[in-house]
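step: validate -> pass
step: tokenize input -> pass
step: predict -> running
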Amino acid sequence: MRHRVYGKHLGRDKDQRKGLFKGLVYSLFSLGTIATSEAKAKAIKGLVDRIINSAKENSKFPKPLVQSFVNDKFLQKRLTDDILPKLGSRSSGYTKIIRMGTRLGDQTMMVKMSLIGAEELKPIDKGSRVKSLRTRSQVRKTLRQQAVLESSKKEVEKEPTGAKPETKKPTKKTQTTKKTIRREGKKV
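step: predict -> pass
step: emit ->
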């Protein structure tokens, strides 16, 4: 029974749900529109209204609610400079939800959620922020590629031009047998 249980759980525990909401809110503010399931869109609709109202109260200094969900300074600036002026004197209803149809895999109703006035918003150009968005794995990958290129250049320089490359002779494989040693009547 669901007596006195508030909110949608979306099949997740508290931390997973908070992470999901952070990702959806971040994408909504950065892109202006997102495609998601109807349940997720309805779950974050009130949260987006609270974040925008909190940001409206004092647009210079973000409130803790705004900082907890929009912790990127670039996105906070976009929220105060681009998004808030387009919303005007509205007190709520900053998003609109348009049904797109069902998802093929599981017949879940998919919707397109967008901010009011998002038509004029341009998506964030990630090319200008490439350095800040790099992950450790991308940095390691480029370093490995550079090391491979340098080592191949050294090998090319060391190799004499007229010499034959050495070929390895195939070696015969020998079978190894497993020996068992008996100690006090037990196999080891």
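step: describe -> The beta strands are 33-37, 95-102, 109-115, 182-183, 186-187.
step: cleanup -> pass
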